[in-house]
């Protein structure tokens, strides 16, 4: 496990069985954060040792009350609240209401898998499953209906931003959740243009009230194959093969109407360029149109602030962040 430049965090390592085929396999689970400590009280110092939060970045105006536990003890879980959303930007950063990424990075096996998981419960206010939002009149673009988790969501992320800009996300609303794959564009990731970047919602699922376990697994093998997989309470609900290639490029007939179609992209395989992941949690909206940034003037669509902030918000509980690595023999 590689450490970032922030203070190292001890994690519990638990062996979880050995494969019976005679191969040199290993299966290990790291309990990264369950918001408790063996002695004393888990507080903001422990939280910030494990998570680098967006509200600690100079000039980044995160939701002012998102971290509800800022002045109180953590009750064995993380509670975040932004009701209603208040921040808005005419760029990709409009999506981010609160964001905190792990200060630890985790090695990706050359042959095997790495799975990130967290328990999440979200309650939204001010959302409407039939809500339409409309671009600025000058855009001459149609209004569109947006999913509940696009309006307000608790989020779980697996990130390779530092090497490729690739990430995999769960957006969790109150009654629905969706799986998202994305390769961030410049200016967020240097050198990634419309020919390589994409943001695509793969699958939307109905969820019942209460806590569920959301997981994202990445697997690769020496043959050159790789894929990402999204799991809900242990069941696989979505999959992306050939990570780095947009889904509508890989499967034009199946994903012609995907949200959002790539723009002249061919993509590129990222399997051999990714060595580590870290993970993150947050509060997000996702309402505008890819490519989300005015530097792409030929494709950028402007949405007025009152179409992006309309009184919606989310209260979220997170717990039991775990990382499981399965390393297989050659």
TrEMBL record:
Positions of region (Disordered): 1-22
Top-rank taxon: Archaea
Name of the protein: Uncharacterized protein
Source organism of the structure: Haloplanus aerogenes
